[in-house]
Amino acid sequence: MKMYDIVIIGSGPGGYVAAIRAGQLGFKTALVEKYNTLGGTCLNVGCIPSKALLDSSHHYEEATQHLEAHGIEITGEVKFNLEKMIERKAAVVEQTCTGVKFLMEKNKVDVFTGVGSFESPTQIKITPKEGTPEIIEAKYTIIATGSKPATLPFIKLDKERVITSTEALKLNEVPKHLIVIGGGVIGLELGQVYSRLGAKVSVVEYTDSIIPTMDRV
């Protein structure tokens, strides 16, 4: 059985940063991630890909609405290619996740792919999608399993017409009308993307303001 000073379950921004720091401090460290890529929700289907699409849609908006004020004139129709935007987003995600993998190797962090669960207070069972589960020993364990999109009991997610933010990052076409349930950061970011590309966007928020978890001035 492999023995570690620190085992981190989850490779999102909390998990991989903890793993890097533990490695830098000389601890024998392992990182457990159930998906094939590191980085968690943020790097794979959250803030990084949404920022990539925000950047692309911002360039389109600048070209169609704001460049003339700067004395830049474009003759002819300005068009966007959503497929290429999605491809660029995917490339940004791949580059970022590859960077995290490099940092694990640089800081001598062992990475295990599979679902981590406790067999005992110090034993972590790692169950891969295929193959035999493995148990490792940890003096200390950091749980950084992150989050996933919330669902509503009265709405069925078919991931075609009713989708989560994950599917919204890879649409084949710009919807005529996009209803965003939840005025949080990711919802508003993706709402901005498709609004800039021509969609009508409506945001439904339960609380009395959008981004309710943010500090108010």
Description:
This protein is of the alpha/beta class and 217 residues long. The protein folds into 2 domains: 147 residues, 3-Layer(bba) Sandwich (FAD/NAD(P)-binding domain); 61 residues, FAD/NAD(P)-binding domain. 36% of the residues lie in helices and 22% in strands. It contains 6 helices and 8 strands, in the order βαβαααββββαβαβ. The strands form 2 sheets. The chain has a 6-stranded mixed β-sheet, with helices on one face. It has a two-stranded parallel ribbon with strand order 7-8. The longest helix has 25 residues. The relative contact order is 0.17.
* Poorly predicted residue ranges: none
CATH homologous group name of the largest domain: FAD/NAD(P)-binding domain
Relative helix content:
25-40%
Structural class, by secondary structure, is alpha/beta
CATH class category of the largest domain: Alpha Beta
Number of strands: 8
Radius of gyration: 21 Å
Summed over residues and divided by their number, the pLDDT gives a mean of: 95
CATH fold-level assignment of the largest domain: FAD/NAD(P)-binding domain
Ends distance = 53 Å
Characterize the main sheet.
6 strands, mixed
Tally of helical runs: 6
Q: What would you call the shape?
A: elongated
- Tell me the CATH architecture of the largest domain: 3-Layer(bba) Sandwich
**Percentage of residues in DSSP E strands:** 15-25%
Number of domains: 2
The topology string of helices and strands comes to EHEHHHEEEEHEHE
Question: Can you give keywords for this protein?
Answer:
2 domains; 8 strands; 217 residues; FAD/NAD(P)-binding domain; two-stranded parallel sheet; 6-stranded mixed sheet; single chain
